[in-house]
Amino acid sequence: MKLEGKIALVTGGSRGIGRAVCRLLASEGAFVFVNYSSSEDAARETLEEVKGSGGDGEIVRFNVADEAEVRDAVEKIVKEKGRLDILVNNAGIAIDNLIVRLKGDDFDRVVSVNLKGVFNCSRAVARQMMKQKYGRIINVTSVVGEMGNAGQSVYSASKAGIIGFTKSLAKELASRGVTVNAVSPGFIETDMTASLPEKVREEYLASIPLGRFGEPEDVARAVLFLASDGASYITGEVIRVNGGLYM
Ligand code: NAP
């Protein structure tokens, strides 16, 4: 068990990549707080899977974009468990459109969840992790934050912002025993990519050297590695999990 006794919080744990992360961290011994914002039934299903994998956890509702909700939830977790070892900033949304069709409100919504959400959650756990002299913050960015993609200007900007944030926070918290890293998934089969037109999926597939789309578990394994002792000398790093789509 790589994470025996560790307490983890996974934002957006109700579905997709977050659910796979919750399951895997729990199967390695972590107690997992499964965050969701609106999909309570899905979060409960994740918790069932967490328990089914031999682990344990709780569901916790908050909107990552809401500073007060995040602060209250983290305070409650620390009060209940006495510590918080691992934060996986996974919650994210995409509003994709050509620049001429995007509204200012679309920008605000995407950035407030994807980027400010990472800031809110990291800030809420930072003091406790520094006090413990131990912590692992793992942020989920995206291949398009690194290479760009037509129709995803706002989403890409929010994800590129996460990379700068990750590196800065890594430098800031390193001396306190807290590592901060990111995983950068390529095309992963989840609700987020399920609605893409067949033609777009085929184009993506043709440009993935490993010849398949990723599964949520592919990303979860990279998160587990960064959360484990095996990654204790790694900080400020971005691990790509994209089948070679971008190198
Ligand atoms: P997904 O299936 O759409 O799941 C998104 C998760 O985020 C859900 O659990 C959702 O919970 C949660 N969430 C959304 N807004 C939230 C908020 N304001 N507060 C708290 N939770 C919120 O997406 P996914 O594909 O698993 O993506 C997970 C992460 O990976 C995202 O950051 C995404 O940008 C990134 N990513 C995905 C891909 C891909 O190909 N799928 C590629 C690169 C990066 P509720 O339903 O309860 O709101």
- N-to-C terminal Cα separation, in Å? 32 Å
The biggest beta sheet reads:
7 strands, parallel
Give the H and E element order.
Answer: EHEHEHEHHEHHEHHHE
What ranges have pLDDT less than 50 throughout 5 or more consecutive residues? none
* Cofactors, ions, other ligands: NADP nicotinamide-adenine-dinucleotide phosphate
Strand content: 15-25%
* Helix fraction by DSSP (H/I, runs of at least 4): 40-55%
* Strands in their spatial order, largest beta sheet: 3-2-1-4-5-6-7
Q: Structural class of the helices, strands and pairings?
A: alpha/beta
Can you count the beta strands?
7
Oligomer state equals single chain
**Rg over CA atoms:** 17 Å
